[in-house]
Design brief:
single chain; about 250 residues; about 0% strand; elongated; ABC2_TM_bact-type; Nod_factor_ABC_transporter
Length: about 250
């Protein structure tokens, strides 16, 4: 725990010194929120009087998918700089180097999500959810962030270029567009609807939306947690195998 805390502090300092990264991770989802709310919102029939409420879960997931890409980039930079070899020569827990990057992703994405929610409140986002529902939303977003971050770790360890370390996130950012994040899946053509309803983002979005509106979550919450937990366990296991091979 002590080693991981030190590595977390080091990684967070790197993030705070990279203002362009903070702006990119936060501004892009906010711009997307404003775009759908004020440009496309009038033409989209989502079956709700408050389209900002409908948008919020999907925009948060896009922000997280975009944010974790920088974990892969920072990890790749560390690998190339040779700092890993210096760390491994010290009497520290080797996995703490990875956990420092992972927990930094969790912290930075939490800040980004909080800023997006604040902007959402300014343009009409409202929630009747109580403290327990909000805690459940935060928990789901945290597990989702951890799952994608460990995927980013795999990309960062295996990449041969900085662009390759971050490129894995592009399909992840695209997934919310083929889900219930922006329009109901019932409006989609058959094959697209089948994909949208059976991919992880839809169940996660539906769960968060139901929690924020104090509606029954049904089976969506279990499907969402199963997806997140499954990706997290597999990605963590594979990332550790790759890491051990790299430092062997």
């Amino acid at each position: 725990m002590t080693d991981t805390t030190v590595m977390l502090g080091r990684s967070i300092k790197h993030v705070t010194r990279s203002v362009d990264t903070i702006i990119t991770v936060t501004i892009t989802p906010i711009a997307m929120l404003l775009l759908f709310r004020y440009v496309f919102g009038g033409a989209i029939q989502a079956g709700t009087d408050n389209y900002t409420n409908y948008l919020m879960p999907g925009v948060l997931l896009i922000a997280i998918a975009s944010g974790v890409s920088y974990t892969g980039f920072r990890l790749f930079s560390d690998m190339q700089s040779g700092i890993f070899e210096r760390f491994h020569s010290m009497p520290i827990t080797r996995s703490s180097v990875l956990w420092g990057h992972v927990l930094t992703s969790l912290v930075s994405n939490a800040i980004s999500a909080a800023v997006i929610v604040l902007v959402g409140l300014g343009i009409g986002f409202r929630s009747s959810a109580g403290p327990l529902a909000w805690l459940a939303v935060i928990g789901i977003l945290a597990v989702f962030t951890l799952a994608l971050t460990w995927v980013a770790v795999i990309a960062g360890l295996n990449a041969s270029t900085p662009d390759g370390a971050a490129a894995f996130s592009y399909p992840l950012v695209f997934l919310p567009f083929v889900s219930s994040a922006f329009v109901p899946t019932e409006t989609m053509p058959g094959p697209v609807r089948a994909f949208a309803e059976n991919q992880p983002v839809t169940s996660i979005v539906n769960t968060i939306r139901a929690l924020l509106e104090q509606q029954p979550v049904g089976n969506d919450i279990w499907v969402a947690l199963a997806w997140c937990a499954g990706v997290l366990v597999v990605a963590y296991g594979f990332a550790m195998l790759v890491y051990k091979r790299k430092i062997a």
